[in-house]
Specification:
Elements: H1 7-12, H2 40-47, H3 62-75, E1 79-83, H4 86-97, E2 103-107, H5 112-125, E3 128-132, H6 138-143, E4 148-154, H7 166-175, E5 179-183, H8 188-191, E6 201-205, E7 219-223, H9 226-239, H10 245-255, H11 258-277, E8 282-286, H12 296-302, E9 309-314, H13 317-327, E10 332-333, E11 343-345, H14 357-362, E12 369-373, H15 379-391
Parallel strand pairs: 2-3, 2-4, 4-5, 5-6, 10-11
Antiparallel strand pairs: 1-7, 6-7, 8-9, 9-12, 11-12
Helix pairs in contact: 3-10, 4-5, 4-9, 11-15, 13-15
Bound molecules: pyridoxal-5'-phosphate (PLP).
Pyridoxal-5'-phosphate binds near residues 86, 111, 208 and 219.
Amino acid sequence: MHTDRKPATRAVHVTAPPLTDSRPLSVPIYQASTFAFDDPDALATALGAPDQGFTYSRYRNPTTQALEETLADLEGGVAAAATASGMGAISSILLGELGSGDHVIAQNCLYGGTYAILRDLSARFGVEVTYVPGDDPAEVAAARRPNTRLLYLETIANPVTKVGDLPAFLAAGKAAGLVTVVDNTFASPILCRPIEHGADVVLHSATKYLGGHSDVTGGVLVFAEEERYRRAWQHTMELGAAADPFAAWLIIRGIQTLPLRMERHCANAGLLADRLAGHPAVASVRWPGRADHPDHEVASRFLAGYGGMLAFDLRGGREAGRRFAKGVRLAKLAASLGGVETTLMHPASTSHRQFDAEALRAAGIGEGTIRVSVGIEDADDLWADLAQALDGN
Ligand SMILES: *Cc1c(COP(=O)(O)O)cnc(C)c1O
């Protein structure tokens, strides 16, 4: 203790005890924006690279790095960059990889925020985008232009659980010399690891299954090559998109039970999909694990499970959808997905309320379509809730 110093000084300089014979079993939250050095040369070196020590948490942080290393490992990549949200990951990679006048090929069933940024990049920076149906890998060669740079895909796409032939699309992207980016949010690395199929970059909204508890917003980019990671690290740092250590810590905590949760999400979704399909108020059910799903065969080739997302169409259309959404008690009407609790959306009365029937159809949604993020509750309790809401219809 420096008892010669005054209280105002001693109060400020609080230090953590050094650890000697033991260390924490869990990853501590390094809730620090800044790190102190003894040597100016070490500080200078650390400022310039993603792997030379900790200086400032927008560049790098030990808690965040624990998340990045875990995700890189689970996805089979060489490195990862954790971001403040899924959109932080998407914006960082698109702004980092694309220049004005570049052309992007993207599947036409995409997360809404991804559409929005592609539209902005087109309007403001002349980035050209061609949307392809995602049914046939030959679409990639057909859409390719001399300025095409990037192919953007989703493993399982919203809201109708579309599954394209990811390995074949990635091979087509590679053959066309494109950077391939896959949003793997719905599958998680437990069901699919796109880098094993040739993807250059995999990204997640960690807000969904990785975090898994509807209590954190985050994202992550995982890279197949060191070189691309280093460039992206520079961009995430400049954009200020880095994850906060506390958010990273919550996501690490979520990931520890991800394999168990995914197993239950998939099992519950399968059970509910089958029961929904047998209910007279339901016209059709879409879950990739069902033989009547248009992509069932393709999905079976590369997914280790069919996920916790399902959609179904009520015969009664928009009004029936509204009544159903109001009628559920255990399942919650909520915009997000991938949490331990079951949530659902009726797009025609919420996210897509301005769409008429034809515009909805073009987006692959019916007036009575309900999208469900199936949680890990007891499956019979879930079915009882959905059944009472259906019977009220
Ligand atoms: C939610 C979501 C995003 C965006 O993630 P945020 O964490 O909300 O920024 C991107 N892609 C998919 C598939 C999503 O579901």
